[in-house]
Amino acid sequence: NGNPAMTFQWAHGKTLDKWVGNVQNRHEEVDFIVRLRAAMAIAKTVADFHQGGVAMNGIAMDNIVLDSQEGEYVATFIGLSGAVILRGLEKDFQEKMRALDLKDLGIILNT
Predict the structure, then answer these.
(1) CA–CA gap between residue 74 and residue 56 (Å, rounded)
(2) Directed axis angle between helix 28-51 and helix 91-109, to 10°?
(3) Which of 13, 11, 15, 17 shows the shortest CA–CA distance to 107?
(4) Taking a C-beta distance cutoff of 8 angstroms, is the pair 34, 23 a contact?
(5) Rounded to an integer, what distance in angstroms lies between the CA atom of residue 24 and that of residue 99?
(6) Are 66 and 14 in contact (CB under 8 A)?
(7) For the segment 8-30, what is each residue's pLDDT rounded down to a tens digit?
């Protein structure tokens, strides 16, 4: 009927804060490629949320779970208590919420 809905699934993998600790022990060249794949997965998940009309409203390293599937990473957000359904809200507020997610994403990717 067009109403937004969330589904719950088991999140396999490691939280990003634990994952980063494991990656830091690898060779520098591999580290860059692995981090790039993970960053792309996280950015895709943010885009999927926004395209679905939801802002995470507080992306942090401990609420992203990364899992490797067939050599690529999949990011899943956990701890959605602060998430905001954007439909029906003023356009300016929607953009502010999306911008907050993108700012948080930038901070995480710079870690």
Answers:
(1) 17
(2) 170
(3) 17
(4) yes
(5) 29
(6) yes
(7) 778 889 999 988 887 766 655 56
Q: How far apart are the first and last CA of the chain?
A: 40
> In the structure encoding, which two tokens stand for residue 8, read together?
């719950």
| SS3 readout for 60-96 | CHHHEEEEEECCEEEEEECCHHHCEECCCCCHHHHHH
pLDDT digits (tens, 9 = 90+) for 31-85: 788 889 999 999 999 999 999 999 999 999 999 999 988 879 999 999 888 999 9
Rounded to two decimals, the pTM is 0.86
Query: Containing H/E element for 15?
Result: strand 14-15
H-run or E-run covering 4: none
